[in-house]
Design goal:
Elements (H helix, E strand, L loop, with lengths): L1 H15 L5 H32 L5 H66 L2 H8 L2 H74 L3 H8 L6 H6 L1 E2 L7 E2 H15 L3 H18 L1 E2 L1 H4 L6 H11 L8 E2 L17 H15 L9 H14 L7 H13 L10 H20 L3
Antiparallel strand pairs: 1-2, 3-4
Helix pairs in contact: 1-3, 1-5, 2-3, 3-5, 5-6, 8-9, 8-13, 9-15, 12-13, 13-14, 14-15
Length: 424
């Protein structure tokens, strides 16, 4: 009995550490290598776009920009697919590990119970009968010590396996959260691709008009399609408030730029992107979509001081990238808005400032972007500040959020072109 139990302990410890099968490991390594290659290509396309935007506007340049945009979007979606595939495999591996660990715990418990029963049976016999069984007192005590050691070793092993199982389950839950996030972000990228396809259709229309001739293209650029009067009257769509003429939006962005140093076109890109995301997410309620009490309590305080009914004020629904409850055109959550209230009030003269007021919203966004480094200027600083705006600066380096920085860059380029036409 002693030898069998000791053998069991040896086998238990030997089987505790196990490796993934070589084919799973190799497949995961291949996915990671392919993903790294795609991300390198995306970075190359991003650098190419930055270079092209700095050149004079020509037919060749604009076609190259369009092609680079489409290529980057396709690469991003492929990269997201690979990330989801890798996460799915990892989750499956964690589930298998949890199952194996549970079986080991069950086997260990059975062996421990058997030893306890055997020990109890030994203790139930009288000492003289035990001594008479083999005639040696030393063997009796050695047997007792061996069983005690085995019992303790198995108990410790069960505890170790249980801890590993708990840790693995926590890792599995974390991976599932990331998979939800990745899937949501892929939806956003698919929307980006649809927008690029629309741009491609528009460019095809212009190519048809210009017939591929540069002089004709320049004439199209200078035609009434790009006329300043049309730009001035074009509506700038805002989240949770009425659209305003582009010229007014630009005036607010210029004022915010004068205070913060954040480029007006970049600020317009942020506000527009927030409206785009808001359309996809929809409208929520503070009672359901806000994180309590972090945001619910300041939200009630904000609306009380503004004399507003909290149940009638629009806020964002909970999305895949965090809690809902964001307010107004700039989509500030209440707990962040209260950190900027005094600075916004000092800049706009509105005390208390109103997150649903366009002027206050523009100024608050510009102040946040300044704090995130956007005022330094340059595409890299602005792109990082944009990701900070979506997910916090702690996530600025994560590839999953790069789409937001790229979207804002495209919108900023569009608005800078319109500003240039207006003579700004």
């Amino acid at each position: 009995m002693k030898k069998c139990a000791i053998a069991f302990v040896f086998l238990f410890f030997a089987s505790f550490a196990f490796a993934q099968s070589s084919d799973v490991t190799e497949r995961r390594a291949a996915l990671e290598k392919e993903l790294a290659g795609l991300e390198a290509e995306i970075d190359n396309q991003r650098a190419l776009l930055d270079d092209l935007r700095g050149r004079s506007q020509t037919l060749e340049r604009d076609l190259a920009i369009l092609n680079a945009l489409i290529k980057r979007s396709e690469l991003s979606i492929r990269a997201r697919d690979l990330s989801i595939s890798k996460l799915t495999r990892d989750i499956g591996g964690k589930e298998e590990t949890i199952g194996r660990l549970q079986k080991r715990i069950d086997r260990a418990r059975e062996s421990l119970a058997s030893i306890v029963r055997h020990t109890y049976n030994m203790q139930g016999d009288s000492l003289p009968s035990l001594l008479m069984s083999d005639g040696k007192l030393s063997n009796f005590f050695a047997e007792m010590v061996s069983f005690a050691l085995i019992e303790r070793s198995i108990a410790e092993s069960v505890s170790d396996v249980r801890d590993t199982k708990t840790e693995t389950e926590n890792e599995k839950h974390s991976l599932e959260d990331r998979r939800i996030e990745e899937t949501g972000l892929r939806v956003a990228q698919e929307n980006e691709k649809k927008r690029l396809q629309e741009q491609q259709s528009e460019k095809a229309r212009i190519l048809k008009l210009s017939k591929g001739i540069e002089a004709n293209y320049q004439a199209v650029i200078n035609s009434k399609e790009y006329d300043a009067a049309k730009i001035r009257s074009e509506l700038f769509v805002l989240r949770d408030t009425a659209a305003i003429p582009f010229e007014k939006a630009y005036a607010l962005a210029k004022r915010a730029q004068a205070v913060t140093g954040v480029r007006a076109a970049f600020l317009l890109g942020i506000i527009a992107e927030e409206s785009n995301l808001g359309e996809n997410v929809g409208t929520g309620t503070w009672r359901i979509d806000m994180k309590a009490p972090r945001d619910t309590e300041p939200f009630l305080d904000i609306t009380r001081r503004l004399g507003l009914d909290p149940d009638k004020m629009p806020v964002s629904k909970k999305a895949w990238y965090g809690y809902g409850g964001a307010m107004g055109p700039a989509q500030f959550i209440p707990s962040t808005w209260i950190l900027y209230e005094n600075r916004v009030a000092a800049a706009t003269g509105h005390n208390p400032p109103n997150p649903w007021d366009v002027e206050d919203a523009f100024m608050a966004a510009a102040l946040y972007l300044k704090d995130s480094g956007a005022a330094r200027g340059g595409s890299a600083a602005e792109r990082r500040a944009a990701i900070c705006y979506l997910a916090g600066c702690g996530n600025a380096g994560k590839k999953a959020y790069a789409f937001y920085g790229d979207d804002v860059s495209e919108l900023s380029a569009k608005y800078q072109k319109q500003i240039d036409i207006l003579g700004g």
